Amino acid sequence: MTPLKAAIYLAAVPTPGRKAPEQLVKKVDVVLGIAGWIGTAAGVAGVIVTGAMMAISMKRGESSEHMSRLGMVLCGCVLVAAAGPLVGFVFTE
């Protein structure tokens, strides 16, 4: 194949637009907003429960690995908070 033919074939590749229907965008925004709030509430509840478990264990004199649980909860909170910007960074043109 000559370079000219290759250039013609490559130039003919269509690039469809990435515009979603407006009604779908609104519904997806609502669902993602609800999911974001649920994720935030779950993170806050996880920190509160882990703190309560740490306090109860300290009062009883037990040792437990609550710091690893707290780390997991905080990592989950960071993932929930950073999900939107990360996806936006990957999929923007």
Walkthrough of the structure:
- There is one protein chain.
- The protein is an all-alpha fold.
- The protein is built from 3 helices and no strands.
- It has helices at residues 3-11, 22-60, 66-91.
- The relative contact order is 0.10.
Annotation field: number of helices:
3
Which strand-content bin applies to the residues? Answer: under 5%
Q: Give the overall average pLDDT.
A: 80
- Largest sheet data: none
- Return the string of H and E elements: HHH
The separation of the N and C termini measures 32 Å
Helix content: over 70%
Low-pLDDT stretches are none
Radius of gyration: 24 Å
Sum up the overall morphology in one term.
Answer: elongated
Strand tally: 0
Structural class label: mainly alpha
SSE topology:
Layout: H1 3-11, H2 22-60, H3 66-91
Helix pairs in contact: 2-3
Brief synopsis:
By secondary structure, the chain is an all-alpha fold. It is built from 3 helices and no strands.
